[in-house]
């Protein structure tokens, strides 16, 4: 029973709506277009027939009225010929004041008027056409009043108008479905051609696998929405490929960095356990502790980068930070660091992350300095860390900001970091809307960090 109730809430598998949703986009667009076209053509045909009937009727009435007015002029002047001529099938009767027919067109009844006295009086009063019958069928009659009580009746058979409308209706009855079919076929072909680039995108997407991720989707030549979609998807694939490449490089480099201290710890313990009597356990413990601390620093750096990646280039907090306080507090931890200038400046961001930026810069500077390290902070948010060490080649000043990048002279274990410090600095500074670069201090190296000043309100 519990399985039946959810099914009742949804659409039945065989319902028309479910069937419609299972059809292809091309079929649905064609069906909708054909339905709209059929409705529009049917409505247009109906309007056309209505307009045609009105137009033919008005033209017939105008012709009858003109002929009746001409006869009325002759009746007023007493110059009506004995035999009236018929033009375009118009039937004319001239009646005297007593309602007797005095003149008529050939073929017209000379004894019985087209309208009796009552209907004739109503037609003369209203000026609207009336209907009558004779041997030829229904007639449309117009009555005009003449002098001396005379009246003129003009009539035309309705059968001719009905026949013209019926012929037009038959043509539309056959032509409208035929035109609908032609337009539906044309819509099917046009929609298919329009959707062909999307099919190419789908086929291209199925060919992109984990072994062929460098491939891209086909981009149509036309500058339309499909072109924009293909370009956007290719850009997304490029970003995904770059992210995967960076992830693989990160995993590979992290495994390499982890392997060295782990191998060192294992080797020291194996040697000590293999020769327990001659082992210096204090020295072994100090070596294992050093490698453990190195692993701890590496784990902290990897965690910091992972958090920066998760936040998508935004700081963890958006608080006002007194940068000069951060500079003085961090610089006090290093005896060889001298703060030459520290002007008050307020920036927006995370105080802990900004402190880590300065810590990483000072760690690098102190590690390579010959004697002194100078820190300088100006009121425009520019922070510089300068050492008097050997510096680095200009070609490597940008490369050292990449993850796990260390120059040849810094690869020894006694030199410290795993090549993540400057990468953390750049990612953090960019997350705070700033920039960082290295420049030659002659001698030594200078790291320049620029952060936007915080504006209240």
From TrEMBL:
Transmembrane feature ranges: 171-191
Key words, A-Z: Coiled coil, Kinase, Membrane, Phosphoprotein, Transferase, Transmembrane, Transmembrane helix, Two-component regulatory system
Primary localization class, coarse: membrane
Coiled-coil region(s): 226-253
Molecular function GO terms recorded: phosphorelay sensor kinase activity
EC number: 2.7.13.3
Protein name per UniProt: histidine kinase
């Amino acid at each position: 029973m519990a399985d039946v109730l959810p099914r009742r809430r949804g659409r039945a598998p065989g319902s028309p709506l479910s069937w419609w949703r299972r059809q292809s986009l091309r079929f649905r667009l064609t069906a909708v277009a054909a339905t709209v076209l059929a409705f529009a053509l049917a409505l247009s045909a109906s309007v056309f027939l209505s307009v045609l009937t009105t137009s033919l009727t008005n033209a017939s009435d105008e012709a009858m009225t003109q002929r009746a007015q001409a006869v009325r002029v002759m009746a007023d002047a007493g110059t009506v010929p004995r035999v009236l001529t018929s033009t375009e099938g118009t039937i004319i009767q001239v009646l005297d004041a007593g309602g007797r027919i005095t003149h008529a067109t050939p073929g017209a009844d000379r004894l019985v008027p087209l309208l009796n006295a009552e209907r004739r009086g109503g037609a003369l009063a209203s000026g609207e056409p009336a209907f009558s019958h004779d041997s030829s069928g229904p007639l449309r009659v117009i009555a005009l009043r003449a002098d001396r009580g005379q009246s003129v009746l003009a009539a035309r058979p309705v059968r001719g108008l009905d026949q013209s409308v019926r012929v037009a209706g038959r043509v539309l009855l056959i032509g409208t479905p035929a035109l609908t079919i032609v337009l539906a076929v044309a819509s099917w072909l046009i929609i298919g051609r329009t959707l062909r680039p999307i099919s190419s995108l789908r086929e291209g997407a199925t060919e992109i696998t984990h072994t062929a991720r460098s491939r891209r989707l086909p981009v149509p030549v036309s500058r339309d929405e499909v072109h924009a979609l293909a370009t956007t998807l290719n850009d997304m694939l490029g970003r995904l490929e770059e992210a995967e490449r960076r992830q693989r490089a990160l995993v590979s480099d992290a495994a390499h960095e982890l392997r060295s201290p782990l191998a060192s710890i294992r080797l020291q313990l194996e040697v000590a356990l293999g020769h327990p009597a001659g082992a210096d356990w204090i020295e072994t413990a100090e070596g294992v502790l050093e490698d453990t601390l190195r692993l701890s620093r590496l784990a902290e750096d990897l965690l910091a980068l992972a958090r920066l990646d998760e936040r998508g280039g935004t700081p963890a907090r958006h608080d006002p930070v007194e940068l000069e306080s951060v500079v003085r507090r961090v610089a006090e931890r290093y005896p060889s660091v001298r703060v030459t200038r520290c002007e008050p400046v307020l920036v927006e961001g995370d105080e802990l992350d900004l402190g880590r930026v300065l810590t990483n810069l000072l760690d690098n500077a102190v590690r390579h300095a010959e004697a002194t390290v100078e820190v300088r902070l100006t009121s425009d948010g520019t922070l510089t860390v300068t050492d008097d060490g050997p510096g680095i080649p200009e070609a490597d000043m940008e490369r050292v900001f990449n993850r796990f990048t260390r120059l040849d002279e810094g690869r020894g274990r006694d030199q410290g970091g795993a090549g993540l410090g400057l990468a953390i600095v750049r990612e953090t500074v960019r997350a705070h809307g700033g920039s960082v670069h290295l420049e030659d201090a002659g001698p030594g190296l200078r790291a320049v960090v620029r952060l936007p000043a915080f504006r209240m309100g």
